[in-house]
Amino acid sequence: MPRGRVVLLNGPSSSGKSAIGRAMLPLLPDPWFLVPVDGISGMRSTQYTRARDEAEVREILRRTRRGYHRVVAALVSTGNDVIMDYPLSEPWRLDDLLDVLDGYDVTLVDVRCSAGELDRRERARGDRPVGLAASQTQVFSHEDNDLVVDTTHRSAADCARDVVDRLDGIGGPKAFERLRAGRMPAE
């Protein structure tokens, strides 16, 4: 069975990942799936924060995100192409994805945006805590990518076109392969 491809749109909250992913879909050959982490999180009951301490909430969120990684892996393992809308805001997320998506064609796209514009977008949205994007300082800590787009002054449609136009021209090894090769061996 052919394996699908993954485009991982990584960036802080409000950087434009979701809008770029939606704008990519009509530009790509069918079928591609946009699978945002917020979609998986939105399927979880909303009662998870009631009467729970912070450590328990963190564990629930970690399990949700690990499950998200495996949902994407299941889709690509059966030949589907997937766009992930997902911030690599905690080091374990990238480590887990490097394991779960080992052997798959992953294109890592860093979605950047100025701090001032992120703050403006968060305030305009009203559905995110102000300062969330600024708190996600680790999204680019891996210091590697296959493509970079900046939404500060460019539309999601322009960035989507840029990603789609450059997607097939990216040679290997790609960022995930380089990051995997650079990891410390397990003892």
Automatic annotation (TrEMBL):
The active site is at residue 38. GO terms for molecular function: ATP binding; transferase activity. ATP binds at residues 11-18. It comes from the Bacteria. Pfam families: CPT. Keywords: Transferase. SUPFAM superfamilies: P-loop containing nucleoside triphosphate hydrolases. This is Chloramphenicol 3-O phosphotransferase.
